[in-house]
Design a protein that fits this description.
The complex is a heterodimer of chains A (292) and B (378).
Chain A: H1 2-32, H2 39-55, H3 60-83, H4 91-113, E1 118-119, E2 128-131, E3 134-139, H5 140-162, H6 164-174, H7 176-181, H8 186-209, E4 213-214, H9 220-232, H10 238-258, H11 264-278
Antiparallel strand pairs in A: 1-4, 2-3
Chain B: H1 2-10, H2 12-32, H3 36-62, H4 69-83, H5 93-116, H6 122-140, H7 142-145, E1 151-152, H8 160-170, H9 176-200, H10 202-212, H11 214-219, H12 224-250, E2 252-253, H13 260-273, H14 278-301, H15 306-310, H16 312-327, H17 331-345, H18 364-376
Antiparallel strand pairs in B: 1-2
Classes of the chains: A mainly alpha (292), B mainly alpha (378).
């Protein structure tokens, strides 16, 4: 019973992080119709920025803040420099570019930071929280992760639902031509969208890294889980991405706890294949929807 | 001359066979002058070329991306390793390769059916998941698949008649590394002839139609899903053969050989060579085989440690890949071809988009050229 609860709790924590990462993928997909596979190494690079700052003797929070800031800059730069030139060209070009970026960031991180595993500090306890005399499978850092993702989601909802800027960003993502006619600076909105998504991805990277080991490939499997979570939710829906992330986190946690952690990625692949075979539009799609 | 050229571009099968025979002659000439180390290097160029050839068919002709060709190679390699556990294994090499292709084909059909029939990023994502998942499977079934250490592959003895034939033709004893290189290159040539024919056939035309305009293709009666799944399946089969060749070249099937990086560098090879061009796939494979040593050498000269210098090669691949897509989307072969066409025609050619790069045997641009020359010559 206790193992069940603990597995579920750690699944919930992981699920929130996957949800954040899926959300980052969905934000970019909605605005530019690209699945940004380079999201994983981008988050890895910003995590290494945080590690460098912390290793230099500064506080965790300074590293945390600088990592998010560098995520913002990196996302904007990538959109302006790499993705913008192939806008309107076949989609495959943009996908190949994100993969080129994937390789470049990976290799750069290995050259600059080295290839070995390094431990990443956590600002809160990484031991289970004790309630009465039982130790629950959720750590102080886990609670922080859930809270951080919830705060970011709330901020995003506020941005997109309440502010004028969010409305313009939605307009640019919904229909570029019409938005442009209405005076929206579409290019700027796309850059901002990539930058914000990159911040969310960086947050997910920091949360995965906290209290564990980082190396240049540590986010590679997370981009798979984020993608599966996003597809579970229909790839187009932020709410779906969050629900998909939680579902995936729970199921992977149970596989990891009861079968073996080596099969986690295979389970993710199986779930993805199942969803694509039965409900390609995501779990919540209407059967009538169909895309050529 | 023009008549000869138009005749040449029409006899597809004959042309491919002649090219294959010429290719085999080159292979024999090169391998006979190569030492053991060089032979193994050329064998690894052959298996990379095989996998890249499969990938270029998928990406160039059908416009889909697979990030899992490294994982598909792993399936071929592990099948080979399971069938060749010791010297007594009596399975002939040809059957082993066919079994490896069959196993990879099965996985290709399963993943392809789920992901490839849909338009969108689904195949890329699913194959990425495959690339991340496959090493874990080898680790989980430690007893059967050898865990981290992997499985050793024992090359069966070279058949007598092959030894005799090799001595008769070349006058040299056939060493084992050279034998492996011959097997790998022969597999490559046979596979490429099949792929080139396929891409010039009705099947290949369907793939291209789906790539260029899905709606128009569907109106023309092409089943979109079926075309996409079949392209991925064929491509996966080539990766399976590549995996089998890799297993007998490296004599080991271990998870560390089939990282996500392998899949991504294969994609680099395809993009560098030119999407959709089998010649480009071979050029890309040559770059993948011979470039790393050069670049790593620069790195150590510049004072980097060996491990860090080894990462310079992927850095160069990635940067070049980005630059190719931004500046010359049709890759090396496509760009050369366009220059050649421009020279013979004396006028600028409109730049084709990346996916419109030339197909293996005869490019669309030279097709256009042939029609013009036909029209003008009496």
């Amino acid at each position: 019973m206790q193992q069940l609860v603990n597995t579920a709790l750690s699944g919930l924590t992981l699920g929130m992080v996957y949800a954040a990462f899926a959300l980052a993928l969905v934000m970019i997909w909605r605005s530019t119709r690209v699945v940004n596979f380079a999201q994983a190494p981008m988050a890895m690079v910003t995590t290494f920025v945080a590690l460098a700052v912390i290793d230099a003797g500064h506080s965790y929070w300074l590293g945390f803040g600088l990592a998010l800031l560098s995520g913002l800059v990196l996302g904007a730069v990538v959109e302006r420099v790499v993705i913008r030139p192939v806008e309107g060209k076949p989609e495959i070009n943009a996908v190949i570019l994100t993969l080129g970026l994937f390789i470049v960031l990976h290799a750069l991180a290995s050259v600059v930071f080295g290839n070995r595993y390094r431990s990443f500090p956590a600002p809160f306890g990484v031991r289970g929280v004790e309630v009465g005399d039982t130790t629950l499978g959720i750590t102080g850092f886990g609670i922080f992760s859930i809270a951080a993702v919830l705060v970011v989601m709330a901020l995003l909802v506020l941005l997109f639902r309440v502010t004028d800027l969010g409305l313009r960003m939605r307009a640019a993502a919904y229909h570029q031509e019409v938005a442009r006619l209405l005076g929206v600076r579409v290019g700027r909105m796309l850059t901002l969208g990539w930058a914000l998504a990159s911040v969310v991805g960086s947050l997910a990277g920091l949360l995965i890294a906290g209290g564990s080991l980082v190396h240049p490939g540590f986010m590679d499997s997370i981009v798979v889980f984020g993608f599966v979570a996003a597809v579970l939710g229909g790839l187009d829906s932020p709410v779906g991405a969050v629900v998909g992330g939680l579902l995936l986190g729970l199921s992977l946690s149970f596989v990891s706890g009861y079968v073996g952690s080596q099969l986690v990625a295979l389970t993710a692949l199986a779930i993805l294949m199942l969803v694509l075979t039965l409900r390609p539009g995501g779990l919540f799609s209407q059967p009538a929807q169909r895309r050529v | 001359m023009t008549r000869l050229r138009s005749w040449w571009s029409e006899v597809t099968l004959l042309r491919h066979l002649v090219l294959a025979a010429a290719g085999l002659l080159v292979v024999v000439a090169v391998l006979e002058s190569a030492g053991d180390f060089r032979s193994l290097q050329l064998a690894s160029m052959a298996y990379l070329g095989l996998a890249a050839g499969g990938l270029t068919i998928l990406t160039g002709l059908n416009g889909q991306i697979s990030l899992g060709h490294g994982a598909l190679m792993a399936i071929g390699a592990y099948t080979t390793a399971l069938l060749l556990p010791d010297r007594e294994s009596s399975t002939p090499l040809a059957l082993v390769v066919l079994a490896a292709v069959g196993a990879t084909l099965a996985v290709g059909v399963a993943v392809g059916y789920a992901a490839a029939r849909l338009h969108g990023p689904y195949l890329a994502g699913a194959t990425l998941a495959l690339a991340v998942a496959v090493p874990g499977v080898a680790l989980f079934f430690k007893g059967r698949l050898g865990g981290e250490q992997g499985l050793r592959v024992v090359l069966p003895d070279i058949p007598e008649w092959v030894l005799d034939l090799a001595f008769f033709v070349t006058g040299q004893e056939l060493t084992r590394s050279r034998y492996v290189a011959y097997v790998a290159w022969l597999t490559l040539v046979v596979t490429f002839v099949l792929l080139a024919n396929l891409s010039r056939s009705r099947v290949g035309r369907r793939w291209r139609a789906v790539r260029d305009d899905a709606v128009a293709a569907e109106l023309a009666g092409i089943h979109l899903g079926r075309a996409r799944v079949s392209a991925f399946t064929v491509s996966a089969a080539a990766a399976g053969a590549a995996g089998a060749m890799m297993a007998i070249t490296v004599r080991l099937a271990a998870p560390s050989g089939f990282t996500l990086n392998l899949s991504l560098t294969l994609l680099t090879a395809v993009v560098l060579g030119g999407l959709g061009s089998l010649t480009g796939a071979i050029i890309g494979a040559a770059l993948l085989t011979f470039l790393p040593q050069v670049v790593t050498g620069w790195g150590t000269d510049a004072g980097l440690s060996d491990i860090r210098a080894a990462e310079l090669a992927p850095l160069v691949y990635g940067l070049v890949m980005i630059l190719v897509i931004l500046l010359a989307p049709s890759g090396i072969v496509g760009t050369l071809r366009r220059l050649a066409v421009r020279r013979t025609r004396g006028g600028p050619e409109p730049a084709p988009p990346a996916t419109d790069a030339a197909d293996p045997a005869a490019p669309s641009s030279s097709d256009a050229l042939t029609t013009t020359s036909k029209g003008t010559s009496p």
